[in-house]
């Protein structure tokens, strides 16, 4: 039941009470009904109550007041219901809007859950890749360390070789300078020999330069010595062989190469077995 219906029920109940009061009053008094009905408020005493007409007028006024109050309440109720309807409509609109937002948020949550799960999977994959990469980096570091050690060794070796090369280059420069000096001296000697009518290649075979060397190899009566044509040895030269202070004999050169010579043992001068490592020296023949 609405508020308006409740108000009407209340009004009917009030009117019923009023009419009931009239009925009781009429029933209880049977004399001088007109005086009882028309007695005004000025004539009221302790024994003579207000007349029914005055009461009716008061009740009518009360009814009118109540009717106005009812109408006001009806208007207020109508306004309240309109306001309520507006509020309900607004609430329903807001509810629909919020339901839509809730649905959207749920969909977004589902989407974010998927993205979160995907991100978690990617993080797990990244962790695995990071672990593999860390292992690979550690292995590479060890390899780099080994390579660095090898490089350091190579650098040290290169530095040592560079120092040796520098030293050899220094020796080569000195040797080239010495060679230039010797070539200049040889050229001067050739010039002096030419002016004297001699040649540097016309050295007498009976004159052996004063040099010494070692026995490189021995085969029967033949020996190989470390002296050759570059040392001034020629075919027919004779060399003395000795070991420490022991004289072993004499050999004659039968083959000459730039850095070595082949000689045979002269048995008439043999004083012992010639071995590899024995010393040889030249001498002058008469």
Molecular structure report:
This protein is α+β, with helices and mostly antiparallel strands and 286 residues long. Among the domains are: 3-99; 212-282, Elongation Factor Tu (Ef-tu), domain 3, CATH 2.40.30. It is 62% helix and 14% strand. It has helices at residues 3-28, 33-38, 52-195; strands at residues 212-219, 222-225, 238-243, 246-256, 261-266, 279-282. The protein has a six-stranded antiparallel β-barrel. β3 and β4 form a beta hairpin. The longest helix is centred in the middle third of the chain and has 144 residues, at 52-195. The protein is rod-shaped, with a radius of gyration of 74 Å. It starts with a helix and ends with a strand.
Widest sheet: strand order? 1-2-5-4-3-6
- Number-wise, the strands total 6
- The quaternary organization reads as single chain
Helix share bin: 55-70%
Q: pLDDT average, as an integer?
A: 81
Query: Structural class of the secondary structure composition?
Result: alpha+beta
Low-confidence stretches: none
Q: Name the shape in a single word.
A: rod-shaped
Which series of helices and strands comes N to C? HHHEEEEEE
Report the sheet with the most strands, covering strand number, pairing sense and barrel closure. Answer: 6 strands, antiparallel, barrel
Q: How many whole angstroms does the radius of gyration measure?
A: 74 Å
Beta-strand percentage?
A: 5-15%
Count of helical segments? 3
Q: For the terminal residues, how far apart are their CA atoms?
A: 168 Å
Characteristics:
alpha+beta; Elongation Factor Tu (Ef-tu), domain 3; 62% helix; 14% strand; 286 residues; single chain; 6 strands
